[in-house]
Amino acid sequence: MTEAHAELGPPPPLPKGGLRVTPLGGLGAIGRNMTVFEFDGKLLIVDCGVLFPDVDQPGVDLILPDFSTLLDRLGDIQAIVLTHGHEDHIGAVPYLLAHKNDIPLVGSKFTLALVEAKLAERRITPYTLTVTEGDQERLGPFTCEFFAVNHSIPDALAVAIKTDAGVVLHTGDFKMDQLPLDGRITDLAGMARLGSEGVDLLLSDSTNAEVPGFVTPERQIGPVLDNIFRDAKGRIIVASFASHVHRVQQVLDSAQSHGRKVALIGRSMLRNMGIARDLGFLKIPQGLLVTMDEIRELRPDQIVLMSTGSQGEPMSALGRMATGDHRHVTMEPGDTVVLASSLVPGNETAVFRVINQLSRAGAIVVHKDVAKVHVSGHAPAGELLYLLNTVKPTNMMPVHGEWRHLRAHARLAIDSGIPADRVVLCEDGDVVDLVNGRAKVVGHVKARYVYVDGLAIGDVGESLLTERKMLGDGGFISATVVVDSVTGKVVGGPMVSAKGFSDDPAAFNPVLPLITEALDRAAADGIGDPHQLQQIMRRTVGRWVNDKYRRRPMIVPTVVEV
Amino acid sequence: MTEAHAELGPPPPLPKGGLRVTPLGGLGAIGRNMTVFEFDGKLLIVDCGVLFPDVDQPGVDLILPDFSTLLDRLGDIQAIVLTHGHEDHIGAVPYLLAHKNDIPLVGSKFTLALVEAKLAERRITPYTLTVTEGDQERLGPFTCEFFAVNHSIPDALAVAIKTDAGVVLHTGDFKMDQLPLDGRITDLAGMARLGSEGVDLLLSDSTNAEVPGFVTPERQIGPVLDNIFRDAKGRIIVASFASHVHRVQQVLDSAQSHGRKVALIGRSMLRNMGIARDLGFLKIPQGLLVTMDEIRELRPDQIVLMSTGSQGEPMSALGRMATGDHRHVTMEPGDTVVLASSLVPGNETAVFRVINQLSRAGAIVVHKDVAKVHVSGHAPAGELLYLLNTVKPTNMMPVHGEWRHLRAHARLAIDSGIPADRVVLCEDGDVVDLVNGRAKVVGHVKARYVYVDGLAIGDVGESLLTERKMLGDGGFISATVVVDSVTGKVVGGPMVSAKGFSDDPAAFNPVLPLITEALDRAAADGIGDPHQLQQIMRRTVGRWVNDKYRRRPMIVPTVVEV
Predict the structure, then answer these.
(1) Which residues bind Ca(2+) per the record (chains A, B) (predicted)?
(2) Which residue of B54, B472, B551 is in closest CB contact with A472?
């Protein structure tokens, strides 16, 4: 396998007639998917998503791709092709359009509707080009052909990018459910035709490459939900992803056949299902939907609440119901809660916390470990092999996955007969050139995590996150003295205080004389420089806390000169 | 179901002839298992374990049961019965013995050997009574009968506690593998005999109550390991729990049959396997074990490393191999790493981080989602029903589980025919009295989480953890001024600094004049009280940071008087 990482230098100039592929996100972590294609001086971007932070990124709201290599080439960008409407594929579009708001967005009807709703909140009206499966569009030197793919959101597309350098097929996210709810299967036949014409490079979704076998058809979820609806004596609350139109459709259908009414809860659920209905992706039986006010008139066994919060988000509708903080809904014994969603890695603690809170309140909680109330939207190993064997690409690059997924996918590619030296295993920022039918890593560009925290973007970096982790683990102890700026003598303090360190208010008493003593010694040695005094205080407090507590709080010494 | 929680008051005096059962841990979270039984003024404790902290307890090393209700009754404790040698059942023994070191410990040979090794590190030699399945022992007014149970550690026991109030059966942790490696199955026949004599209260392990069906027999793991060993071309590194003697035995056996040598790595692995071998629980073929020095002389395909670190612990042997920080072992393409263990909830992020690091380094990583290299040690729903139907207890109390597990187990008990009002669903600190054959929650005692952080126990509480979370999410901004203690006038500062807030060194410049202005206004209003000045500074900085950043760092104002 061709492997290359950050230790590589910047890439050489792209040879004439070559195609350059630069993943700026999506490789090494699941999220912030973004790939830049360059040909003949022009750029085409596929997807522009966000990554949600995990415990290693405390206090961070979102993680963006690093746009820095694009900023002086914004005018070269022909379009941003969006494969589907999930946040990890469209969430960073507003941040890129903030730099240049007339870059055209290309995608399917539902995808564009979701991104337009998102941009409307920021008062951006984008230039868009709606495409559908089978379409072929020229975007500068790039000719794009679109293929239907089946995923956990409607109207998803794969895209073939054709240039004089060859044909690249980017699957986006996909699975190959052979009995999808909407009958729109992944167009393996179309991709076979493309493969027979020659695919020089395949970029394919690796999320489930470690999982053996094939997905359970979506249609098997419906009967499981029906069973739950039949058995439930009280209210039913279903939580799912706010964009999983087919899962919501199944809940609506079960509610309808069991004589229950449905209220949608959560801002994103309401918005997305409104869009889905308007565009014909969601069929809502007449009179089925009710408002939260109308719900109050119904008996518990007539009620279904369709909510967000399947990932344990504490501020979501379900999260607030679990803690008893929801304005309208208080959990009661006899309620049934269904988490009809996958468990995104990193969210386990939060999700099980919510399940335990709901269980404590008396609800019966059904989740995917207990019953088949959800199937993944990503193709497992068996399906990935079908795709590899059908497309028969000359070169292959696993995308959309953590290292464990990328490597498992690379092994599948090799097992399917692609020579190991044509399987390109990359991480974010690696630059891959396709020249003369051969894909090779040629360099690396900056692809840092760009953190959004509150209103500011990019002022939170790795060293600051290390400080947060240190503060979060051990709190801090601050020590303050006042020195005379002329004589260098201590004229006030030391004052010691701490946060997150100890509940014992007398904890710091023993260290005060130690600081005074150390400062006296410093004065005797003629040391009056504030920086040196701070170091002395830091060392004195640090040694004391280590000896006495074996803890490592942050030590924050301050010298104020008067 | 009888449910009772912390809103209850302290329990009334125990009626004469009644048995009191107080779980001090293990209910509501998996860990720190400890149950106190009281009869006729005497106490018997079953298990005394620790809980490992999760993301909600940053910086905490261990969580202990709250011993406060026991401290003035230490002399009444007849014994601590230890059901098996896992940390969540024995880990808090040293902390309880620190209060009174002659409380007798009762347990099986292997369990006591592990707890003695732990106590030896603290120079405590405990009083012990070794028991084995079938034994019956009088411990004050409590007669204990012991039953073999099968679990993920050898020599585990269930205990029946007989008093004039009735018979209680406490399963400890168990599963009912019908083909265990050591042939020692859970003694369902013995428990059936006990049940036919009458069990008034069953306390039973709820960990897998949500999981349908039955465990896969341990013997099916061996062939899976054998396949991995046959296919591996390079070194094999297996990580498992350091007390899972049978899993290690399977690895030794596979190594032996594939002509590989084994080195044990990690302090606890070496210690526990030494004890297991000495006591006859682990059979090590002659010449199979080698030292890390001897490993260097072998080819990669002759090497097995048996390591700790299956839960993603960064400082464990495997954790350090993954980051390239291990003294002896650097991962290489071709290495195979097997995580032969369950994934303890809360550890997912850490475990997948290690798997990704190993994958990035080129290793093939096999874990339980990919191949059947581990089975749980806890009985799932099918087996719990067998136990319920065999023992036929009059009252039942689910133990050892989070709320979701306890409630699922309660439903199984009711499904098996126990009247709902005889299923006692409790949480830590609830007090259950068994009087005239009827178990009822009668009150609640203190059962706080007691945090160990470094050398100190109990000085870290919930409000302090909230401070740590706030600091960890947003860092802090400190603002310091010096005031004249006589005039109340500001004579130095304001100085502003921050940690974990922003990488921008000029970030605070705009807030300095705002603080000065606010303090000037305060001076004009005659405000000189340090406490009031601190509030003014806190408000000024807090408002500024919210307006400008929409962030909530901790604001730490300091007024030093000179």
Answers:
(1) 59, 61, 453
(2) B472
Whether residue A73 lies inside any domain: the answer is: yes
In a domain, B371, yes or no: no
Of the residues A313, A333, A366, which one is the last residue of a structural domain? A366
ipTM of the complex: 0.91
Which tokens in the block code for residue A259?
């004589």
- The yes-or-no verdict on residue A2 having pLDDT over 70 is no
- Taking all residues of chain B, what is their mean pLDDT, rounded to a whole number? 95
Residue B269 CB partners (closer than 8 Å, separation 6+): B242, B248, B306, B307, B308, B317
Question: pLDDT per residue over A337-349, tens digit each?
Answer: 999 998 888 888 8
Tell me, yes or no, whether B112 and B186 share the same domain: yes
A405 a known binding residue? no
pLDDT in the model for residue A78: 98
pLDDT for B291 equals 94
Chain B residues close to A474, C-beta within 8 Å: 59, 468
Quick: pLDDT tens for B349-383: 899 999 999 999 999 999 998 899 999 999 999 99
Who among A28, A459, A482 is closest to B560 (CB)?
A482
A282-328 pLDDT per residue, tens:
999 999 999 999 999 999 999 999 999 999 998 899 999 999 999 88
Check which CATH number belongs to the domain holding A317 and give it. Answer: 3.40.50.10710
Asked if A146 and A188 sit in the same domain, the reply is: yes
Taking the C-alpha atoms of residue A336 and residue B112, their distance in angstroms, rounded to an integer, is 44
Task: Give me the pLDDT at residue B533, please.
Answer: 93
A199 and A278 share one domain: no
Residue of B468, B481, B503 with shortest CB distance to A460: B503
User: Is residue A397 within a helix (H) or strand (E), and if so which, with residue range?
Assistant: strand A395-399
Look up B444 and say whether it is catalytic. no
Give me the sheet containing A450-453, strands edge to edge: A62-64, A450-453, A456-457
**Number of domains, chain B:** 3
Check whether A4 has a pLDDT greater than 60. Answer: no
Rounded to a whole number of angstroms, the distance from the CA of A450 to the nearest CA of chain B is: 13
pLDDT at residue A453 is higher than 70: yes
pTM: 0.93
Interface of A with B in 19-78 (CB under 8 A): 28, 54-56, 58-59
Residues contacting B296, CB < 8 A, separation 6+: none
Sheet of A156-163: strand order equals A136-139, A142-149, A156-163, A166-170, A201-205, A395-399
Q: Answer whether residue B5 shows pLDDT above 70.
A: no
Task: Name chain A contacts of B58, Cβ cutoff 8 Å.
Answer: 472-473
| Same domain membership, residue A223 and residue A358 | yes
- Do residue A211 and residue B503 have CB atoms under 8 angstroms apart? no
Q: Which residues span the domain enclosing B333?
A: 218-366
